Amino acid sequence: MMPGREMSSAPQVITGGSNLARVVEAAAAAPLLAVDVEGNGLFAYRSRLCTVQLAWQQDGETHIAIVDTLALDPAPLRALLSAEGPIKVLHDFTFDIKLLAEAGIVLANLRDTSVLARMLGRKSTGLASLLSSELGLVVPKELQQHDWSRRPLRPVELEYLATDVRHLAALYEKLSAHARSLDIEEEVIAECEFKYDAALAPPRERRPAYLRIKGAESLDGPSLAVLRRLVEEREQLAALWDQPPFKVVGNDVLLWLAQRKPATVRELESAPRGISERLLNVAPRFVGAILAGQADGSVPPGEWSNGARPDRALLAARRSREKRLSNWRRKEAAARGVDEQVVLPGHCLAELVALETNAADAIARVKGMGPRRIARYGAILSTLLADAPLHGSTGDANPESESPR
């Protein structure tokens, strides 16, 4: 029997506590558990956990359960999905971890097929692409942006949900066999651990939402003050209407309003695009936000500044380090016959470039390095970083170039 074409029972839809208890008991006995979740983040102000899909092997057959978390409390899944439960296989688990955490469930003891594929140098790492290239399976993709809070779940939707987990174990086993043949399993685990910590860490982006809008950097102070008020108003309406903010009004429209500053509803109606009929019904609120921003005159102190760039010597030193590390990484990957990400993930390379020292303990503290890389490459990395200390920044410490892949 070809990998990925094992016998599979019809998926169970779990809407009651007693059925969920039986699923938990059966799945807990399996050595490997495929997991996926769905939410309604494209259709609600705050994404809500809508389904949890589980697949496991039992008596030579793949069993699939679709837990309707809108119909029952998912709390009984906590032990199964914790570190004490079986190994969980997911594909790109960042979203799943966050959504389950918001529902009070800590997902642990994980393996990620997208990380495996990336570390193996696969060019396309989406689930559908990998199932096609690795297992010869074609799976539907038309429901990727479906509203999973809609009930009842139709047969086509249930089949789509089941497909997301039905072949994950077979995919994981094939990719893992390749990773074992290259002796890179420890690096894969280190990358999964880094991804897990990054998913649950507080967001690194600390700028207010209005400053994250593309084009905001070109606005003057008074226009930024208006944009700030408009974003606040959009957020309030999104919460009121239970919609994602981008569905209330787009960033491009807010930017246009901040630049033109229409002072009346009639003037606001002249916006070239994006003003829906529903939005016109609350147009006075946006006009009020514009007037309030004009009264502010500027944004709160400390929220916005152009910031001085690092001095040229510092930028040059960073570029030199990045080039030196990248060249070494490329040659080492070729010598080992592995992908460059195995030798040094892009996020590790970026952190190493920014270090102010080449001390071994500082290199060891770089997140995602993992014990094996430190033991194997710690000394050579220290040598590669042994240039002039990176001191003297006069502002934002980010290099001009994008972070390496």
Compact overview of the structure:
This protein has 405 residues and is of the alpha/beta class. Helices cover 49% and strands 9% of the residues. It contains 19 helices and 6 strands.
Q: Point out poorly predicted stretches.
A: 1-5, 392-404
CATH topology of the largest domain: Nucleotidyltransferase, domain 5
Helix and strand content put the structural class at: alpha/beta
**Global mean pLDDT:** 91
* Biggest β-sheet: strands ordered side by side in the sheet: 1-4-3-2-5-6
Strand content: 5-15%
Number of individual domains: 3
Rounded Rg: 25 Å
User: What kind of oligomer do you see?
Assistant: single chain
The CATH homologous superfamily name of the largest domain equals Ribonuclease H-like superfamily/Ribonuclease H
Total strand count, please? 6
Order of helices and strands: EHEEEHEHEHHHHHHHHHHHHHHHH
Measured distance between first and last alpha carbons: 38 Å
Q: How would you describe the shape?
A: flat
The helix fraction, in percent, is 40-55%
The major β-sheet equals: 6 strands, mixed
Which CATH-level-2 architecture of the largest domain?
2-Layer Sandwich
What is the C-level CATH assignment of the largest domain? Alpha Beta
